[in-house]
Amino acid sequence: MSFKPMTNPNHFDSIIFYQGAAAFSAVLYTGRYKMSTLILGEEFGSETATSNIIENYPGQFQIDGLGLMLNMRQQVEALEVNIIDGQVDRIVRESDRITVKANDQSY
Ligand SMILES: Cc1cc2nc3c(=O)[nH]c(=O)nc-3n(C[C@H](O)[C@H](O)[C@H](O)COP(=O)(O)OP(=O)(O)OC[C@H]3O[C@@H](n4cnc5c(N)ncnc54)[C@H](O)[C@@H]3O)c2cc1C
Questions:
Q1: 7 is a domain residue
Q2: pLDDT tens, 40-97?
Q3: CB neighbours of 99 closer than 8 A, spacing ≥ 6?
Q4: Into how many domains does the chain fold?
């Protein structure tokens, strides 16, 4: 599968909301398929980053939540995704695209 490069820096094949464990997991797939991807969320790491010790993450006996989220971010940064801190204010469906409003910007 291949995607056309976007010419406008605010246009993306895929926008993933929030900066929690679910968002960073999803971007592993879009990033690997070379989709231009934006992660948009207001709080890095979300709930997982506030957890002390996590004991049920496969392959890890114990890991602290913030450390786990920092690892996830490092892994997705290697896929050259864009990460922007901000609150998602509005999502508008148009005929040929979906526009997301955040930080007084449109994506
Ligand atoms: C103290 C504690 C300990 C835990 N321990 C464990 C454990 O050991 N094992 C385990 O499996 N789970 C544990 N959990 C649960 C685990 O943290 C959650 O299941 C996990 O964080 C869910 O991830 P998520 O990405 O789906 O959502 P979240 O982590 O909730 O992320 C959602 C994010 O979206 C942001 N957001 C919401 N609306 C907007 C908006 N309009 N614009 C921008 N951003 C927005 C929120 O601020 C939040 O940062 C624990 C949770 C807590 C609080």
A1: no
A2: 999 999 999 999 999 999 999 999 999 999 999 999 999 989 999 999 999 999 999 9
A3: 91, 92, 106, 107
A4: 1
> Residue 59 domain-assigned?
yes
88 Cβ inside 6 Å of ligand 1: yes
Strand, helix or coil for residue 94: coil
Ligand 1 neighbour 91 (Cβ under 6 A): no
pTM: 0.85
- Does the beta carbon of 37 sit less than 6 angstroms from any atom of ligand 1? no
Q: What CATH number did the domain enclosing 76 receive?
A: 3.50.50.60
Residue among 40, 20, 33, 24 nearest 75 (CA): 24
**34 belongs to a structural domain:** yes
Q: DSSP code of 6?
A: P
Higher pLDDT, 82 or 6: 82
Mutate to test the pocket of ligand 1, among 28, 46, 76 (most ligand atoms within 8 A of CB): 46
Q: 2 in a domain, yes or no?
A: no
